[in-house]
Structure formats: C-alpha cells, structure tokens
Specification:
Layout lengths: L35 E3 L5 E3 L8 E2 L1 H17 L3 H21 L1 E3 L2 E3 L6 E2 L7 E2 L6 H15 L6 H14 L14 E3 L5 E3 L14 H18 L2 H21 L20 H15 L2 H13 L7 E5 L2 E8 L15 E9 L3 E10 L5 E5 L8 E3 L5 E3 L2 E15 L6 E6 L5 E7 L5 E11 L2 E6 L8 E3 L4 E2 L7
Antiparallel strand pairs: 1-2, 2-3, 4-5, 6-7, 8-9, 10-13, 10-16, 11-12, 13-14, 14-15, 17-20, 17-23, 18-19, 20-21, 21-22
Length: 472
C-alpha cells in the first residue's frame, strides 16, 4: 500500500486529541426516548422507529462511550463525573461481551439488518461488520485504559481489549470478516461498509477518517509502528482522493462509490480534515480545510452588512423560509432588483451562505429589503468583522511574492474597523507564519503569527501558502 510519509504528532494538548470535541452533554447522559436510548443495563441501543426492540450498534455505542469519556475528563462535579465513566464503561463492557473472534482479532457485530436508502449495494443481514466501528471501538478501549480514575486491573483489561481489536485493521479482504482493502491503484481504505466481495465497498470518507483516529490513539498509547504505518497509508489515500471528495462550490461527496453530495456531512468533513492537519502537522490537510470552507461555508453566520454607496443588485431565491437550501427549490432565482444607496449604509444579515451555482450571498434580515439576498463583493458589500475562523496547529508558512509587488496587510478590530494598514513590498520573496485563516470583511485572509506584523491580516489571494499537491 502506498505511503507518502505522514508522521503522527504525538504531543497534542489533551483538548485537541480525538473525540475531545464531541462530549456528551449532561442532559443527554441517560437518553430514554427515540431510536437511540439506554437499556436497563445502561447500554446505548438502537430501537428502529422508536419501538421496543433494541439492537446493538457498535458505532453508536463507541461514540456515546467516547463522548462520555470526554465529559468525564473535564466534569468538575464528582457525581456527574462518576456517571459519565459508568456510561462509558457500560458501552465498552457490552462490546467486549458481544465480540466475535475471527482471523486473530476481535470483531464487533451489528445486531440488525441494514439497507442504505440512498447508496445502492449497502445491504446487510445481521451480523455484519464495519471498519468505522472497529476503529472507533479501538479508540474507546485505548481512552479508557488511559484514565487514572480507573484501577490498574481495569486499565489493563481495556488495554488488552485494544490489543485484540487492533489486528482487525491489519487483515485484508482475502477472508471474512474484513475491514481494510487496497484499491487497484495501491491505496489503502478502511471501509465503513465493506462489500460482499474483495475490493468492494462504499469507500466512505468520514467513516475511514473516524477509524484513523483509533490508529492515532493506539499508536500514541503503545508506540505501535504498524498503527502509524496504516495511518500514513490511509492519510495518503485521503490526500490522493481529496479532489474526488471535493465538489467545487458546493457540498462535498459522502463516498467514492456513489459521489452523492452530502449536505449533512460537509461540515463534518471540515472538522475531520482539521484534525488530520493537527494529527500529522501536514499543510496538505489545512489546505483541504480551506477549500471545503470556501466551497460551502457554514451557513449559521449572522452579522452586519456594510454597503458602499452606489448601485447594488438584490435577488430572491427559491429557498426554505429561513433561507436554507432545499432540493425542491434548488436556489432558483425568483426576482431581481437594483437599488441605489446615496451614501455608505448598513443592514443586518440573517444568513450567509453559498447560493447554488453562484457565489456567497447574505440574506438581509430586516428593513426595507428584508428577505432579499446580496452577493459578497468586497469592498462593495461585505459582512463586517471576522467570520469562520480556522485555527492552524501547527502554523503555516506564507510567502509574499517579492519582485517589489505591493501587498497590503491590515490590523482589524473585532467590529471590522481597519485600525492600521501596512504595505509589504520587497525585491525577494518573504516568508511569514500564519496561525489562522478567516473571512475578514468579506475576504479570505490569513493572520500573521510572528514578527513585526504579528496580528495583522493579509488577503489569501495576495500570498502563497505552504501546501504541496496531493500525492499521485
């Protein structure tokens, strides 16, 4: 399997490690209604249609358990802290009790039949297995084994469970069950939905990355070289196939096999690629985050639109009542009007999002033009201040062009006021570090992290960032 040489950053602060960003809230520690709820033993089960028959769901149990571990780590109240740990252990213990041993590894079966309603070919009869589940359960065992609130015997038991689970991600598709295959081009895939035949599967992006977090956790805990090598191979695959995950100027695709845009997964992809950047330190994945944010930025942004005096085009689109995209309306243009402002003015924005087949627009939230959209066009119309920050860890290198080409940098206050402007113009290229990328006053900008212009913003279009092409 191909490897590009991605190396794991093992000294991440605790808050940046896998699953710390998905804690279970106290209000959700004992779910009792709906399709996913606890049984009498405190085990997270799947009840189809909210009925009375519950089934084991390894991904659901692992994610609920990991969320409870995350909350246990930070919860100050002793009683709550203890219950979070009880819930996490109930999931792990259930998974251990129901394990199937095959091909020298532990496997965690789904206890119900499943047919994907959108993706053809994903059709299973219980028991069935998932590479996503294997990786996430591995994370759960590792993270429990690391808790000093458990006794040595319990920590050792979970560590042994992790050691028995990891080999399931080493066997390939030359037998059953399996979770990993190498495609015809030599790239490794951890399959969320393995196919019935070798080299068959859904090639789902998010499921593979979540499984990779298990490899990260296991390597950090044990120093496992095989775990680091498989992570490298999987990261190489993700980098190679990013152009196929990406759907330019719209929602990214859910999987390689069906290439169906996934509105509910696009923001997940952004967060997952942020974690790949932190875990590897590679600018490749930071660049991928930037592209995904630009393609379809998170739509929950509000603020104040600054209009420059002059003529502006306002539009109405076929959307949901609050402005969200719908498959039925598909952002079809319904109306158009031209307005003239004799002086600079402002208006509230109820939403900022990309319109299908167009650029980013703002939905005017109040006043004479409420319900109309205006395009984001700096300096003519833009949302004031910093939006959609993407922090970089590690920092990224930016290169100013040299050749005496002038590049303006800005110090900008929280309300979007430009407090200072400086021009950089040098005969040779100049390199600086950036710790953040955001949309600032309607333009994508990097924040300079060191040197005499620390804290200044520079337009992304004016500099070159430190990425390299995806591996071929």
């Amino acid at each position: 399997m191909k490897q590009a040489g991605y190396r794991l950053v093992t000294d991440l602060p605790d808050g940046l490690r896998p699953w710390r960003d998905r804690p279970v809230k106290w209000a959700n520690v004992s779910p009792s209604t709906g399709p996913y709820r606890l049984d009498a033993a405190g085990v997270y089960r799947y009840f189809p249609g909210g009925g009375s028959v519950g089934h084991d769901h390894p991904v659901g149990q692992a994610q609920f358990g990991l969320g409870c571990v995350a909350s246990h780590r930070t919860e100050p109240d002793p009683a709550r802290k203890a219950l979070f740990l009880t819930r996490a252990r109930a999931q792990a213990d259930r998974l251990i009790a129901r394990r199937k041993e095959a091909r020298g590894a532990w496997w965690f079966p789904y206890g119900f039949d499943f047919t994907h309603q959108v993706h053809s070919g994903v059709d299973y009869r219980a028991p069935w297995y998932s590479g996503m589940a294997q990786g996430e359960v591995l994370s759960l065992f590792v993270q429990l084994a690391q808790l000093d609130t458990l006794g040595a015997a319990d920590r050792d038991r979970y560590r042994q469970a992790a050691d028995r689970t990891f080999p399931s991600l080493q066997v390939l598709d030359d037998g059953v069950p399996w979770a990993v295959n190498v495609d015809n081009a030599g790239y490794a895939w951890i399959q969320e939905y393995p196919g019935a035949q070798p080299d068959a599967g859904d090639y789902t992006y998010n499921g593979m990355i979540f499984a990779m977090f298990g490899l990260y956790d296991y390597h950090v805990a044990t120093g496992s070289g095989p775990a680091a090598d498989l992570y490298d191979a999987c990261a190489t695959t993700i980098a190679r196939y990013f152009p196929l995950l990406r759907n330019k100027r719209w929602y990214s695709y859910y999987c390689q096999t069906h290439r169906i845009p996934a509105p509910t997964y696009h923001q997940h992809h952004i967060h997952l690629f942020q974690q790949l950047h932190r875990q590897t330190g590679s600018p490749d994945f930071a660049e991928h985050v930037d592209r995904l944010v630009d393609d379809f930025p998170a739509p929950g942004v509000r603020g104040t639109i600054a209009f420059r005096a002059g003529t502006h085009t306002l539009l109405r689109f076929d959307t949901a009542p609050g402005g969200a995209w719908t498959s039925g309306g598909d952002d079809v243009q319904l109306k158009r009007r031209t307005v003239m402002f004799s002086r600079d003015t402002r208006a509230p924005a109820a939403m900022r999002r990309r319109i299908r087949g167009r650029g980013v627009h703002y939905l005017i939230g109040a006043g004479s033009y409420a319900g109309w959209w205006v395009g984001e066009f700096w300096p003519k119309s833009y949302l004031l201040g910093e939006l959609l920050p993407t922090p970089y860890r590690p920092t990224r290198a930016l290169t100013f062009p040299g050749g005496d080409v002038p590049v303006e940098t800005y110090r900008i206050t929280a309300d979007g006021t430009v407090a200072a402007t400086e021009t950089v113009a040098s005969s040779e290229p100049v390199q600086v570090q950036a710790d953040r990328r955001s949309v600032v006053n309607g333009r994508a900008m990097f924040r300079i992290a060191a040197g005499g212009r620390t804290g200044h913003w520079v337009p992304a279009a004016s500099v070159t960032s430190d990425t390299r092409p995806a591996v071929g």
